[in-house]
């Protein structure tokens, strides 16, 4: 509760400040449009996980994604970020994209504009503090409950694209994993953005469903990408640490190199990602 009160106080303080912002869309930056699709075309999905990080479920989701060489978007709550900064650092180190999902999952769409802006800024700053990087790219904002109001424009002014979803397996309703598998199997389509949760409740069925579905999708020819952004080509926004020639990387390690993310299949030290495809798996552009 002390953490929540501290963040809430920061929100109140920020609400009294008039923020100076670059106009949305300036210099190819984000616009106030809402994203409903992946960056790439074809048999592509984007996986997104909301309401974490959770000390019980986020590590299991991260393990599963690493095992299957998939990157995703984690839409983080500021209150959870303050409690579990180590998990934020792991999300970032493993090359996933982070998304601002408000401080406490309040309905920002119904708030006064400056109050909503203050909440979004407080969450973004909490994510960056937890990650230990004041310049960490936070490319997305997702409005709790999909209640957008003025938030897409606010997010654009802060350099974020408003991220929606197009497939919701309703893993928040307590359904068992086999029901979630059925919903995911019947609902996905090329370029879909899939909403699930790694926080906010019992996510055992979610983890179990994806443990079945991700390999099944991959066997059927699906690939995974990040969602699109608005206002121009997706900018290089790698979060995984840069590859270093004399650094030892155990299997499963992720690095960024020349605007892409790579994962080591086994221990490697001097082989660069672009010159050792037998060691490094290319997981795609940042």
Automatic annotation (TrEMBL):
Taxonomic classification: Bacteria, Bacillati, Actinomycetota, Actinomycetes, Pseudonocardiales
Presence of the UniProt keyword Signal in the record: yes
Keyword Signal tagged: yes
Top-level taxonomic group: Bacteria
Signal peptide: 1-21
Name of the protein this chain belongs to: Peptidoglycan/xylan/chitin deacetylase (PgdA/CDA1 family)
GO molecular function, one term: hydrolase activity, acting on carbon-nitrogen (but not peptide) bonds
Organism in which the protein naturally occurs: Actinokineospora auranticolor
CDD domains xrefs: CE4_NodB_like_6s_7s (cd10917), ChiC_BD (cd12215)
Matches recorded under Gene3D superfamilies: Carbohydrate-binding module superfamily 5/12, Glycoside hydrolase/deacetylase
GO biological process terms held by the UniProt record: carbohydrate metabolic process
Keywords recorded for this protein, A-Z: Hydrolase, Metal-binding, Signal
GO annotation, cellular component aspect: extracellular region; membrane
SMART domains: ChtBD3 (SM00495)
Segments forming domain NodB homology: 43-225
